[in-house]
Structure formats: structure tokens, C-alpha cells
Design goal:
Layout (H helix, E strand, L loop, with lengths): L1 H25 L48 E6 L5 E4 L5 E5 L9 E6 L9 E3 L15 H7 L10 H4 L2 E7 L2 E10 L12 E8 L4 E8 L4 E2 L5 E2 L1 E6 L12 E6 L1
Antiparallel strand pairs: 1-12, 2-3, 4-9, 4-13, 5-8, 6-7, 7-8, 8-9, 10-11
Length: 254
């Protein structure tokens, strides 16, 4: 009788452990946000610095250095704030209690923008810019990505000219090390302390999904001297004036 009670107790404990592990797994991966609103589209148009005059004199050979600015046709920028709540819900979404934004909602984590929906976060790895380009092996490399976004190998705003550093990132309980990385600007100036973004890949035999992963900040100064929770860039072929690139957004916040 005592042995039966011990076995029964052990089974109960194991069942609770399984439930706990399942619950942990359910929240240990990025997920789709409740809503996203597109509030403010802008692009620079005032590139005309005015006509400049240079005098010519017969017989002279003159070296000129011309400085100008052009708008990228390869990258889209996103920035903004994160609002929401911390909640205690059951499996059907019924709320027992929640802690709304008014009580200090200030999540930290990552925002992910993928060029296809993610089927398995367990297959997400660092994108290998120098890999062999084969789906299911190294996946897309620099050459494939730049072709995808209409870039030439010598473009100043190419993929490997943009993601020049490396950073680690934690997805769920998995740490990915030395992923291609860059940092967005602060107050119109390049820096390397905040606003980290990494290049990731969901890579299996069926799909190679490119993922741009941006680390969130809490009311930190962004590119335009205003405070934001996130800012990031994603690739797009701007030479096609009609087509756009669809991105699927996920968040992983705590």
C-alpha cells in the first residue's frame, strides 16, 4: 500500500513537472503582438544644396572634390514605442488579473521582423554572411541577400557594409553568439552602446527566412533626439517603385 502511494505521488509530481515545462515552453519563444499601428511615414526630400559656381580658366587643369547626399534605396527604418500590460490569463485568454501600462509597463527584450512567417523558432540561427548559400545548410549569404534587395556588390549601403559588427542574442532560452550586428544612431550620430540590431535566419530544408532582430530600450534617445523604445532597419528593393516587402513582426518581452 505504501509503495502504491509513493508511485502515485511520484506520478503526480512528474505530471506537475511536465505541465510546468510545457508552460515554460509556451512563453519561451517570440510571439506576435496584439496590434501594430502605422502612424507616421517620412522620407527626406530636400537634397538640393543649391547651385554651386566654379570659375573656369583656359589652360588650367583643376581637381574638384564634390560632397553630396543620396537617399538609400535598400533599407526601410522603423521606430516607435511599446505599450501594453502584464497579465494573468488562462488558456482561453480569460484574465484573472492584469497590470496595465499605468502601473509602470516598461518591457525589455527584442522586436523581430521576418520576411516570412516563422514556422519554428528552434531553427533560428545567426545569419552567415560568408556561408555557402544553400538552403538547409548555411542558408542565404551576403551575395544572395544583396541580390534579393537589388544591391550591387560594391554598394555603400549593402548588407555587409551595414552589419559590420557582431553581437550575441538570447531567443527564449537559446543564446546565439556572434551574429552579424549593427547599431542605430543616437541624436543623429553613430554609436555602439544602444539600439543593437542583429541578422538572423530560420534555416531548415523547407525555408530560409531572414529575420531582423532589434533590441528594445526604455525611453532612450533615438536617432532624432526624441525618446523611443525601439528603432530598426529592414531590407527592401527600392528600385521597384511599385512592389513592397512584407514583414512579419514578433516580440519577445519581459
Amino acid at each position: 500500500m505504501k509503495m502504491r502511494m509513493k508511485v502515485s505521488t511520484l506520478k503526480a509530481i512528474l505530471a506537475l513537472l511536465v505541465l510546468a515545462i510545457m508552460a515554460a515552453m509556451a512563453i519561451a519563444a517570440p510571439y506576435g503582438p496584439d496590434t501594430i499601428s502605422r502612424d507616421n511615414d517620412q522620407r527626406r526630400t530636400n537634397f538640393d544644396g543649391g547651385v554651386k559656381q566654379i570659375e573656369a580658366q583656359a589652360g588650367n587643369v583643376t581637381q574638384l572634390t564634390i560632397n553630396t547626399t543620396i537617399l538609400t534605396e535598400r533599407w526601410q527604418g522603423y521606430y516607435g514605442n511599446i505599450s501594453g500590460k502584464v497579465t494573468l490569463d488562462d488558456a482561453n485568454g480569460y484574465t484573472m488579473y492584469d497590470w496595465s501600462a499605468g502601473s509602470g509597463f516598461a518591457p525589455v527584450g527584442e522586436i523581430y521582423a521576418a520576411n516570412q512567417s516563422i514556422s519554428s523558432w528552434g531553427d533560428v540561427v545567426c545569419l552567415n554572411l560568408t556561408g555557402n548559400g544553400v538552403v538547409g545548410q548555411d542558408g542565404p549569404n551576403t551575395t544572395i541577400l544583396e541580390t534579393m534587395y537589388g544591391m550591387d556588390v560594391d554598394d555603400a549601403d549593402g548588407v555587409d557594409e551595414t552589419f559590420t559588427g557582431t553581437k550575441d542574442i538570447v531567443i527564449g532560452t537559446t543564446t546565439l553568439t556572434s551574429c552579424p550586428a549593427t547599431n542605430m544612431y543616437v541624436n543623429n550620430v553613430s554609436q555602439s552602446a544602444l539600439w543593437n540590431e542583429t541578422l538572423l535566419l530560420e534555416n531548415n530544408t523547407a525555408v530560409s527566412t531572414v529575420i531582423f532582430a532589434a533590441q528594445t530600450e526604455q525611453n532612450a534617445n533615438g536617432f532624432n533626439n526624441q525618446t523611443w523604445d525601439f528603432q530598426m532597419i529592414v531590407g527592401d528593393n527600392g528600385e521597384d517603385a511599385i512592389a513592397t516587402t512584407t514583414y512579419y513582426f514578433y516580440v519577445e518581452l519581459a
